[in-house]
Amino acid sequence: MKAWLATHRLPLLFFLIALAGLNWLIVNWESGRFSAPVAEGSQDVAISALQALHDENNTLQAELVSLKEELAMLAASESGRNGLAVSATADDGSAAASESSSSVASPAGQTRINLNTASQAELDTLPGIGPSKAQAIIDDRTANGPFKAAEDLKRVKGIGEKTYESLAPLIFVE
Question: Is the pTM of this model over 0.70?
Answer without folding.
Answer: no
